[in-house]
Structure formats: C-alpha cells, structure tokens
Amino acid sequence: MKLRSLSVVVLCALAALAGPARAEQPQVPVFWDAKERLPKPDLHTLTRLRFLTTTDFPPLNFLDASGRLSGLHIDLARAICAELDIADKCQIQALPWGELDGALQKGEGEAIIAGIAVTEEARAKYAFSRPYLQFPARFIMPKASVLAEPLYSKLKDKQIGVMAGTAHERMLRDYFPDVEVKTYTKQEAMFDDLKAGKITGAFGDGMRLGFWLAGSEAADCCRFAGGPYLAPEYLGSGLAIAVKADNPALANALNYALHAISVKGTFAELYLRYFPVSFY
C-alpha cells in the first residue's frame, strides 16, 4: 500500500509548529489547539501521583553531575503536578527500564514518563496521554550550500548520507526517490564526509542531528535544511505518558495539564532549556 505523499507529511509537520519552519531560529513544536477546551479533572480522591522514569535517556531523564534526577521529563512531571494543583501528592522515581511496567502494574506508581512507544500492542496494556513531543526527520547541510524548500526537485541526483538500515533510510528512499543515497554504519564517518563536502547533506533524527550541530565536532559547519518531516508510519507517534489501561481518567487529567502547559508557554520554556538548538 502506498504511503501518504511527501507533501502531506511536510504540511503536517509545518502545522505542528508555532510558525513557519526556519531552522536557523529556535522553533518550538506545538501539538495542542489553544482553542480546545478540556474538562478540568476532579482529583479529590487521588492520594498520590507517582511518576516512574529511568536515568538513561538524556536529556529527557538522566542523573546530573551531582547525581540528581534531571531532564525534560522530570521538569514536565513537576509542571503537570503544579498545573493539577497536586504538587504535595507528586513523586518521581527512577527505575531500570525493565522494571517500569512491573512497578506500574503492581501499583508502585501511577504513570510512566520514560518514552514507551505508543503501539497497538502497548495500547492493550496502557492508557496513554496524547503525545507531547515528536521526533521529526531533518536534513543538515553545509551552511555555504544549504538548500531551501521545496527540496524534492533540488535534491535530484544529489548524494545524501543516512544511517544504514534505519527508518530514516527507508523514509529517504521512499519520499526522495531521485536522491543518490549513501549509507553509513558509523555516524562519525557520515559527519566527516559532510564537513569535507563529499556529500550534499545528511538525513536522520532531528534531535540527534541537533546535538551534533550544537557540539564542537560540527565546528559550526552546518545547519538544518528543509523540513521538519513528521511521518508516524516510519518514526512513530511520539512521546506520551503511560498509565494503567483501566485508568483512562488519569490519562485525561494528564491531557488537561499538558494542554495548559502548552498554551501557557511552559512547555516552550522547558523544550528550549534542553534543546537550545531546536530540531523543529
């Protein structure tokens, strides 16, 4: 079955932004309609809300230099509790990834905020909040030769690097069939070729590419070009908070808080704190 066209993917990506995509300026993804009105949850019977996470998913959840649990997920959980006016009932606990589900099912926590993939299989086990962050695919190119949208025709016969065997390789081949795809098994080799001008650009996960652009290895050589490209068929539906399947009321309460956090600009502040080079 033919997947939706590239133009639809680009339009969906741009619709998720607060404004037009300009990679050289910080862009914050917006996944909530400010005009939507969600019912305020009644949490008077809630005795506590324990968020379960891990320490191995920086910058979303990790231990900082002083050993303190930190990250976007940690600050987001606290913001949710503040928005629901239950800060005194909230706790955040880090566990090994393999213990998260067991702890939730045994009632040792009420919500998992650690990047559980929202799949059909997972939906049988969990109730999810709506996604609060997605990871788009992006192109990066040398600053001196960066191309602007529409890239589809401009990339014909251009050599683009991508990591072999990834969803991004499949996406690149499907949506840009006229591109000369060069695959790599080591990301460092791809970046070296990009800086040396041996390839026109590189295509991959926007978050990882953003970290490289912000680091010393990039030597300020390159920037994002085109996009961002959101394609759930390849990249998944993004990050959501998981609760037990029999607790949809809590998922709805989390949606209420996430919506308010977005509309008030709190999420934008948190996002740019941890992603100063925005991958949108």
According to CATH, the homologous superfamily of the largest domain is Periplasmic binding protein-like II
- Overall body shape: elongated
CATH class descriptor name of the largest domain: Alpha Beta
Give the overall average pLDDT.
90
Strand composition percent: 15-25%
Strand order of the largest sheet: 10-9-11-8-12
Q: Classify the secondary structure makeup into a structural class.
A: alpha/beta
Number of domains: 2
* Helical content class: 25-40%
Uncertain residue ranges? 1-24
Characterize the largest beta sheet: strand count, sense, and whether it forms a barrel.
Answer: 5 strands, mixed
Second-tier CATH architecture of the largest domain? 3-Layer(aba) Sandwich
**Radius of gyration over alpha carbons?**
20 Å
How many β strands by DSSP?
Answer: 13
Describe this structure in words.
With 280 residues, the protein is an alpha/beta fold. It folds into two domains: 99 residues, 3-Layer(aba) Sandwich (D-Maltodextrin-Binding Protein, domain 2); 139 residues, Periplasmic binding protein-like II (D-Maltodextrin-Binding Protein, domain 2), CATH 3.40.190. 33% of the residues lie in helices and 19% in strands. The strands form four sheets. A five-stranded mixed beta sheet has the order 10-9-11-8-12, with helices on both faces. A three-stranded parallel beta sheet has the order 5-1-6. Strands 2-3-4 form a three-stranded antiparallel beta sheet, with helices on one face. Strand 3 and strand 4 form a beta hairpin. The two termini are 29 Å apart. The N terminus is likely disordered.
